[in-house]
Amino acid sequence: MPPIRPLTAIACLALAAAPATLSAQTAGPAVLRFDAGKPASRVSPKLYGLMTEEINFSYEGGLYAELVRNRSFMEAPGQLIHWKLVTRPEGGNGALGGSMLFDTSEKFNDAIPVSLKLSSGEPPSGRVGIVNDGYWGIPVRPNTPYRASFYAKAAPGFKGPLTVAIRSNEGSTVYASAQVTGLTGAWRKYEVTLTTAANAPVSAANQFEISAAAPCTVWFSMVSLFPPTFHNRPNGNRPDIMQLLADMKPAFLRFPGGNYLEGNTIATRFDWKKTIGDVSRRPGHMNDGWRYWSSDGMGLLEFLEWCEDLRMEPLLAVYAGYSMNRQGLQRVAPGPDLAPYVQEALDEIEYVTGPATTTWGARRAQDGHPAPFPLTYVEVGNEDNFDRTGGGTYDARFAQFFDAIKARYPQLQVIATTPVATRTPDVIDEHYYRNSEDQMASFAHMYDARPRTGPKVFVGEWATRVGRPTPNMSAALGDAAWMTGMERNSDLVIMSSYAPLFVNVNPGAMQWPTDLIGYDTLSSYGSPAYYAQKMFSLYHGDAILPVEAQDAPTRLWQPPAPAPRRGPNGEPPVAPATPPPAPPAQQVPTLFYSATLASETHTIFLKIVNRAAAPESVRIEIAGLASLDPKGQSIVLSAPSPDDTNSIAEPSKVMPIATPIDGVAASFTRTFPPYSITVLQLKGK
Ligand code: AHR
């Protein structure tokens, strides 16, 4: 469908109000007009942030750099998944005698009441050991030190050595190894560094092995292997993924969810007290919302240190007494039943912000971080609009949290996850997942006309869901259109974060298609939508300049029929006997824009999104400046096709390109490529 143009000049507010009344016109270049001397309001300094939760193997086999999967054998009671026994005679192919057992009689500690028992009665003529296959392999890189550690105890008579090694999958190539001796009958931690050779090939088809060459009975727990981490933090994060995030310069991190905060049941919520302290005392828990095990190696303090490493402010979501299993009614009634959960949240805030003289501040200091973390926003729950039983309990649950948090921490801003009537939240978290570029674009003006009388808005989850596992250029265009709307309205929309952030692209790892950043065992990449966000986050001023648009092109879009909804108790959606009529077709703009000004430097950042398949010529008229430097910069993200995307194989197929431009003036015309997102950086006086 070719673009069509409205006949009349359109102020940015008017287009949202009457999208269906636009009529076709072929004249003209579009005109964007603004006055740099008349900023409307301030751009929120926290507009661009991140949202994270354990989904799509975001931390396990993702950001959290641990390479051993099922390290404490808690993933599947009674089973040793991701572990196997190796019994290999020296230089031969047969098998030695030996066994590997899930042992509940030798418990490691109260949190991890199991262990792995390795036994062999064979003479020292080969190796008998345990092998972990990692998260889709163990990454090997040349010249790389790996920190291996484990707890072990041995039956009398065995002192070692144990050989700790990274081997190729078929076992014939040893990339790094070290020996451990001196085992006793008591649990003790052993640590070695495994360093690969300069000529080790980069590969993922490897495994981690601990073996004995003599008769043995040894129990193991908490078997761990870490490659180098970001900032060399122990128990830290993958540097490549952290760098992708650092490059976005995000202002905050919303954690720990999402559905991961809530769990399907109260018992499987993000129970923060079980995620702190020595990792060897964290039981882990079933992440039943996304159906895989979480070691909780990424616990509350690790989330906070992640914030610290990237200079983001934590945005803490606290469990609010609502878990997702609707049939089981996994929610806590407001009143006395909820009080322990409110206390849990107050303790959590104290752990984050309290001085080391407070109970939970002292615990944080003991865990290795004496300094309190900054905290401005606390979010109560997640998507509590889904709590519809009996009219819903969120209003009363929110009030209980709100009152307690405000009484103890009056400086904190409290975020509600859906509108409430009995209290006035400081901020409301709104979520917008759209299934097409046009659909997302059709909402890009929705905040223009929103009254400024209510709470501020945090768009805590949003995405144009086109492309899997990561969004393609079409999604990036929808996202960019949407971001112009948030930026233009950032007096109201004070924070935003795309979701989900991560996906491990290995087979079976993804639960939710369309995720901002993809990775496998060895490498990572940003999607076109990632680069669009990076451009928005990096290039903006502190003041919003209202833009008047004239002759902005549109195209016709047929919205989908509304999908049937679940019942109030989670009953599966039932399609009506007579399908509802399709909503009327709409004209949706193909050109989107936002202008901001850096007041101190008089730099203008003009963002222009051209979703059309053809180049778009735009006349730009700038008033309110004594002069404009004819030279500027243009940063463009574009692709020949909206289907183009990035991937592990082609991580840089769609990337922004910065070029100097000339000819900037109070009135000048520029042509924007098809399928493009542009930032013009212009210097005024
Ligand atoms: O981002 C994926 C999920 O979408 C989040 O966990 C939840 O909050 C939303 O429904």
Describe what you observe in this structure:
This protein has 685 residues and is α+β, with helices and mostly antiparallel strands. The protein contains ten helices and 37 strands. Strands 4-15-18-19-20-21-22-23 form an eight-stranded parallel beta sheet. Strands 3-27-31-32-37-34-35 form a seven-stranded antiparallel beta sheet, covered by helices on one side. Strands 1-28-2-33-36 form a five-stranded mixed beta sheet. Helix 5 packs across helix 7 (394-408) and helix 9 (473-488) runs parallel beside helix 10. The longest helix has 16 residues, at 473-488. It is globular and about 90 Å long. The protein starts with 8 loop residues before the first strand and ends with a strand. The model is unreliable at 6-26 (pLDDT under 50). It binds alpha-L-arabinofuranose. Residues 53, 55, 257-259, 382-383, 461, 499-500, 512 line the site of alpha-L-arabinofuranose.
**Total count of helical runs of at least 4 residues:** 10
Looking at the structure, what is the overall shape?
Answer: globular
Number of strands: 37
Low-confidence stretches are: 6-26
Ligand list: alpha-L-arabinofuranose
Secondary structure layout plus pairing:
Blueprint: E1 9-11, H1 12-17, E2 30-35, E3 41-42, E4 50-51, E5 83-89, E6 99-103, E7 115-120, E8 126-132, E9 145-154, E10 162-168, E11 174-180, E12 188-195, E13 206-212, E14 216-226, H2 239-248, E15 252-255, H3 259-262, E16 285-287, E17 292-294, H4 300-309, E18 313-318, H5 339-353, H6 359-366, E19 377-380, H7 394-408, E20 413-416, E21 427-434, H8 437-442, E22 456-464, H9 473-488, E23 493-496, E24 502-504, E25 517-519, E26 524-526, H10 528-538, E27 543-545, E28 547-550, E29 554-557, E30 586-589, E31 591-598, E32 603-610, E33 616-623, E34 628-638, E35 657-661, E36 667-672, E37 676-684
Parallel strand pairs: 2-33, 4-15, 15-18, 18-19, 19-20, 20-21, 21-22, 22-23, 24-25
Antiparallel strand pairs: 1-28, 2-28, 3-27, 5-8, 6-7, 7-14, 8-13, 9-12, 9-14, 10-11, 10-13, 16-17, 25-26, 27-31, 29-30, 31-32, 32-37, 33-36, 34-35, 34-37
Helix pairs in contact: 5-6, 5-7, 9-10
The protein binds alpha-L-arabinofuranose.
